[in-house]
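To whoever is on call:

I kicked off a structure prediction for a single chain this morning and the downstream step that reads the tokens threw a length-mismatch warning. I double-checked the sequence; it's 169 residues and nothing unusual in it as far as I can see. Pasting both halves so you can look.
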Amino acid sequence: MLAKSLIKRMNKKERSLVTDGALVATFFTGSFAYFNYRERIRKEFLRSEAHYRFSNITENITPWKQLYFTWWRMPDEEFNVYHRFKPYFILGQLDYTKEILLPKKQNGVDGYEVINPLYCYEGGKVSMKELWGGGDPVKVERAAIIVNRGWIPAALKDKKTRPTEVNSR
């Protein structure tokens, strides 16, 4: 009621200014709402895709044969189609003795990024020559994969301050 009486008292120029302001506000509000709606739909789709892909059988990608992992230079489209949200596992052992600490600040706190090799157990090779020669016919080879284990604060730089780490399979 008050708004109507205020608008009636305005001259034509002021009324057109109010009308233009209302249209601009409507446009921006609608654009903002539409953008958030599209983001919600996109995230919902990704969640449903992840649930579907995570329900697949977990696949062993341990390099049983001479495999070359080229995931670090794989095109995004190929990664999204074939590998995103797929469950994988690797058989091997994380080597804590060959740890590399890279200095990195996180949220203003000094710390380190921890890098370790993960040695995968390959299927090995069978040599009939060694079998008849009296040696060990099966040779197990190890291939290493670099694993970024995350960030630790500078206070935990020394391994003695991290007693929960166990060199396990």
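Update from on-call: the warning came from a stale cache, not from the record. Cleared it. Sanity check on the structure: The beta strands are 59-60, 88-89, 92-94, 100-106, 109-121, 125-126, 138-139, 142-153.
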